[in-house]
Amino acid sequence: MIASAKWLNRIKWDENGLVPVIAQEMGSNDVLMFAWMNRDALARTVELGQAVYWSRSRKKLWHKGEESGHFQQVHEMRLDCDEDVLLLKVTQVGDLACHTGRHSCFFQKFENTAGQIEWVATDPVLKAPEDIYDKQK
Questions:
Q1: 2-100: CATH class
Q2: Measured distance CA(91)–CA(50) in Å, rounded
Q3: What does the pLDDT read at residue 137?
């Protein structure tokens, strides 16, 4: 079984059995999103060649794109020097990684202009969330 493979033991899982994961777009190198994986999610990612994460809020595996159709095809996985963070190089199918309808989840930029300090949304909504997550499906 792939979930018990030795390569999984190299990872320094946190006390909840999770590892942080950064999804980076192949080619542009845009950071698309941050999520978590457990052993099963990582093993499933390898089996499918598509990103599967652990949803901490839903407490279950989350195949990215299962509801939106915006899957992440995984081309490469890297483990950081401390062996406690993963980087996925992905192709974002459908161009939307964020549930807000944006290309990246990192669309809010910190700005400090003339003492005005705020987070500013800098990336456009490419598709309205209600059009992505149609409840009538």
A1: alpha beta
A2: 9
A3: 44
Distance CA 41, CA 20 (A): 12
Residue 113, SS3 per DSSP: strand
What is the SS3 assignment for 93? coil
Nearest to 48 by CA among 116, 112, 2, 80: 2
Share of the chain above pLDDT 70, in %: 94
Tokens of 121: 């949304």
Contact in structure between 51 and 74 (CB atoms under 8 Å):
yes
Buried b (16+ CB within 10 A) or exposed e, 112-135: eeeeeeeeeeebeeeeeeeebeee
Residue among 60, 37, 58 at smallest CA distance from 50: 37
In tens, the pLDDT along 88-119 reads 999 999 889 999 999 999 999 999 999 899 99
- What phi and psi, each to the nearest 5 degrees, are found at residue 62? -130, 105
In the numeric block, the tokens 């209600």 are attached to 130
